[in-house]
Amino acid sequence: MSFVEYSEIIQEGDVVIIFLGHESMMPIKVQSGAQTQTRYGVIRHSSDLIGQRFGSKVTCSKGGWVYVLHPTPELWTVNLPHRTQILYTTDIANITLMLELKPGSVVCESGTGSGSLSHSILRTIAPTGHLHTVEFHAQRAEKAMQEFKEHKVSHLVTVRNQDVCKDGFGITGIADAVFLDIPSPWEAITHAKSAMKRKGGRLCSFSPCIEQVQRTCEALLDHGFEEICTLEVLLQVHDVRAVNLPLPDFGPEEGSDDSQEGVPNTGNTSVICRTAIPPREMAGHTGYLTFATKPRD
Fold this sequence. Notes:
By secondary structure, the protein is α/β, with parallel strands linked by helices. Helices cover about 25% and strands about 30% of the residues. It has 8 helices and 15 strands. The strands form 4 sheets. A 7-stranded mixed beta sheet has the order 9-8-7-10-11-15-12, with helices on both faces. The longest helix is centred in the middle third of the chain and has 13 residues, at about 140-150. The mean pLDDT is about 90.
């Protein structure tokens, strides 16, 4: 199992996603002899998981069943242990697209946090790209390195425990893209520009407050960045449901048998339609995404 390569069979040491329902999933590490308790009963790793195919339907000890899914960055985002606030797929999709990431890209990221964005970047730049990610907090950096190793992507990523605003990314002149998710991104613009390749590259900064955006844009302009733009992504998911709608009574058709006097019209005819209904409440602001392009030297 790897987060960047698909495999057919579950093996010991793999991370799998236990799917109990659309609103209930959990990641587990497969270990011989181990057991995992769910509301549908116990899952025995040796007999129920190891050697089975990803996507299999597994019957638990109480007779209920679950699906065992191959891990993906999207599934990991909604199931990972939160060490920090994380980015979700709505913002991640825009970041990977607007940074023009592709297989072979070299990317710098700060901070690593819980690794939500990191896993999506790694899948996008595999198999020949590389991610240089910087995390200020020592324990979070150590945990991120451990997860990358367990997920079999450690060969694609270098984790550094340092202050990016003071010490930079540890590389010079090779990055195709830089992503910043730190409290004062304007202090890291100099290091970001230094890390980026001479023939240009793209930068993205994620900030929850517009005041941070303003200072970051000023710093980008001071360092010669071009095509600076800021956007905000708001997600509204529509609920599809069946609705019973009464048909209006326009009276009998001309020339039909019902046009005769004395024929009653009950007016109770209805039809079942499927319709999309917007949510009464929706997730609002997450953060502002500021993108810029480094000019060619």
